[in-house]
Predict the 3D structure of the following.
Amino acid sequence: MTTVTAYAPAAPAVLPPARWAVRTAKLAALTTVPSGLWRVALGVGLPVGFSGAMERQMTAHMPGWGTVYVIALSALAEALAFLSLGLVRPWGQRAPRWLPLIGGRRIRPLTAVLPAAVGALAVTLVTCAAGFGGWYGPNAMGSPEAPQGPAGLVMTLCYAPLLLWGPLLAVVTADYYRRSRTGSR
């Protein structure tokens, strides 16, 4: 005689995110877009405001490998920022089936939390160092050959959102960690 047992679906590894966390993750993912577009403009040869020796240095290999470099840098930043969404989406809890070797497997919360926390700290430190003092020196943004006036304003407005990336990622990471603990909420 066979016994029939009731099937109970397993509880989700991570509780669903609040609406504010989803919006915060989306905003974190978008913070890299303006600077990426600015770099791509530089890479394809659009004048972005550099002059003199600094312009020659910045555009020496554009078009060319310099173009490939700035586009690859922009794509990498976009991809890393996009991973913020994994903290509020199902693919951040279970690897998509199409991925080789790990497809369909559950992602342990700390596997997401630790890299996200380190990334949030690193991005915050780098962007704050650049934004609050790293722009000065003979070949930095404080140089008279760096973009000035409207071009300088455009560049600043394009890079300013990066200051939010680390803190926004930290908030979403903390929320993911809180939701992933059993018995939270």
Observations:
- The chain has seven helices and no strands.
- The mean pLDDT is 86.
